[in-house]
């Protein structure tokens, strides 16, 4: 690990990566490497948890391709020197910010979208002019293997290298001195990463999770709200960090809402054989999810098959904040439905929980929409939709509090791996004596006047 990191640091110090044309070459190489080997990528992820080609392309590869194109198209704009105003106290001078790559970066990917959540931050890091060591999640072993096979056979390891392994390898990596660490995963592991980074004062971006609520008011467009909620919740069998974790529906429409949920799920016919559903990633997560399904509260679904790691889309009725399903992020195809009669009280209850990564509001009321947006703190979200905010690169993606630190996507991703180096460039044809000795009351008065004018 030390030799690998040292070799990347030595290459970074040649300043080669600061050349924008060089960065574009690396992004082009990655783009065509993925494009030319899509079938290998499709086959690998299907072996891991039966994810279809359609879902893999739409929810993973398409987003990575878009990130690459977006970075290539905007890199010169994002990376150029930024002129800023100079205050009167520094006259005569000019001021500007140099966008400087951070150096050797460690990217630790997540298992639920193993391509997108590993490669998207790597794309941002390369675009910003860094070298990258990528540690994919070991849980989807085939996807980790294929990424290592493709990238390590095509890229110079001093620029971009995949390191495979589990806890031991990750622990060893975290003991090294990086210039930036980017982690996607659980809050529990995020704390471990943060603690390890603190030893070297390494800056970190943490993309974590949390219990993301969806508020449904009685004046919503019920048909389209349910359609979008069902898709967002059961995409990837609920194994999505920004999936609606639970629903708070206005009591007056509870039964209509539940019936509409059931009808929409049946209409979609979620099944691996239908190429719109996946397995639970492993046995541990399967067993954890089974324990969250209270038989007495099942409104729909509840069927499980341990041999296939299959859990049917499941709706829990009459859920409360005290239920087992409300004590942790579900991260699976189980949807508790809670009711409320007063939106302010519902928001207050959600605010007692750790700040979520996302929140969603389905309503036709501007007042209700603004209530949630203004009163509830969360990473990001959507009005009358769910999950789709991640597809807009103009929207920085990230959490707050327990759901994460920092953000990325689009320019935010470039900035995430960039140090803004501030420069004051002073002219030499004039030098005001105010700051120099001997100090005097008159000079102090001039300084005060100057400061007031700024």
Please describe what this structure looks like.
The protein has 454 residues and is α/β, with parallel strands linked by helices. The chain is 42% helix and 19% strand. The protein is built from 15 helices and 20 strands. It has helices at residues 2-12, 20-36, 38-49, 53-79, 116-127, 141-154, 167-174, 187-198, 222-234, 254-268, 283-292, 343-351, 366-375, 410-416, 441-452, and strands at residues 82-84, 93-101, 104-108, 131-135, 160-162, 180-184, 204-207, 213-216, 246-250, 298-300, 304-305, 310-311, 314-316, 334-340, 358-362, 380-383, 397-398, 404-405, 407-408, 418-426. The mean pLDDT is 97.
Bulk shape = globular
Under CATH at level 1, the class of the largest domain stands as: Alpha Beta
- Whole-number tally of structural domains: 2
At CATH level 2, the architecture of the largest domain is 3-Layer(aba) Sandwich
Going by CATH, what is the homologous superfamily of the largest domain?
Aldehyde Dehydrogenase, Chain A, domain 1
- Counting helices, strands and paired strands, the structural category is alpha/beta
Main pleated sheet = 7 strands, mixed
Give the beta-strand count: 20
Q: Outline the low-pLDDT stretches.
A: none
Strand order of the largest sheet: 10-13-14-9-8-15-16
State mean pLDDT (0 to 100 scale): 97
Q: What proportion strand?
A: 15-25%
The number of helical runs is 15
Q: CATH topology of the largest domain, anyone?
A: Aldehyde Dehydrogenase, Chain A, domain 1
Question: Helix proportion of residues, in percent?
Answer: 40-55%
Give the distance, in angstroms, between the N- and C-terminal Cα atoms: 50 Å
Our Rg estimate from Cα atoms comes to 25 Å
């Amino acid at each position: 690990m030390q030799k690998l990191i040292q070799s990347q640091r030595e290459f970074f110090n040649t300043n080669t990566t600061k050349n924008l044309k060089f960065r574009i070459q690396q992004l082009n190489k990655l783009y065509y490497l993925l494009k030319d080997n899509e079938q290998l990528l499709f086959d690998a992820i299907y072996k891991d948890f039966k994810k279809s080609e359609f879902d893999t392309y739409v929810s993973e590869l398409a987003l990575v391709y878009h990130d690459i194109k977006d970075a290539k198209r905007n890199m010169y704009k994002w990376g150029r020197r930024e002129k800023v105003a100079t205050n009167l106290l520094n006259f005569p001078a000019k001021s500007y910010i140099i966008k400087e790559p951070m150096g050797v970066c460690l990217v630790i990917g997540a298992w639920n979208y193993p391509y997108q959540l590993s490669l998207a931050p790597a794309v941002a890091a390369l675009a910003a002019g860094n070298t990258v060591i990528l540690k994919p999640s070991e849980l989807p072993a085939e996807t980790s293997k294929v990424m290592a096979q493709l990238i390590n056979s095509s890229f110079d390891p001093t620029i971009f290298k995949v390191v495979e392994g589990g806890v031991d390898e990750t622990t060893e990596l975290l003991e090294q001195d990086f210039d930036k660490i980017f982690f996607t995963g659980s809050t529990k592991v995020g704390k471990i990463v943060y603690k390890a980074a603190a030893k070297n004062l390494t800056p970190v971006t943490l993309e974590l999770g949390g219990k993301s609520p969806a508020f449904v008011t009685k004046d919503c467009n019920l048909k389209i709200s349910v359609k979008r909620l069902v898709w967002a919740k059961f995409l990837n069998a609920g194994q999505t960090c920004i999936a609606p974790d639970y629903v708070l529906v206005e009591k007056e429409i509870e039964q209509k809402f539940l019936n509409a949920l059931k009808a929409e799920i049946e209409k979609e016919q979620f099944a691996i054989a239908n190429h719109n559903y996946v397995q639970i990633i492993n046995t541990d997560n399967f067993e954890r999810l089974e324990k969250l399904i209270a038989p007495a509260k099942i409104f729909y679904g509840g069927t499980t098959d341990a041999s296939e790691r299959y859990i049917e889309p499941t709706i829990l009725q009459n859920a409360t904040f005290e239920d087992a399903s409300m004590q942790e992020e579900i991260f699976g195809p189980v949807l508790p439905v809670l009711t409320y009669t007063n939106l302010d009280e519902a928001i207050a209850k959600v605010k007692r929980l750790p700040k979520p990564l996302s929140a969603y509001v389905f309503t036709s009321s501007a007042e209700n929409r603004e209530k949630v947006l203004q009163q509830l703190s969360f990473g990001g979200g959507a009005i009358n939709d769910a999950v789709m905010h991640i597809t807009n690169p103009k929207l920085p993606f990230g959490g707050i509090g327990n759901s994460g630190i920092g953000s990325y996507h689009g320019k935010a991703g470039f900035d995430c791996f960039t140090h803004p180096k501030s420069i004051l460039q002073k002219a030499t044809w004039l030098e005001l004596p105010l700051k120099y000795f001997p100090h005097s009351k008159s000079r102090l008065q001039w300084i005060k006047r100057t400061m007031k004018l700024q």
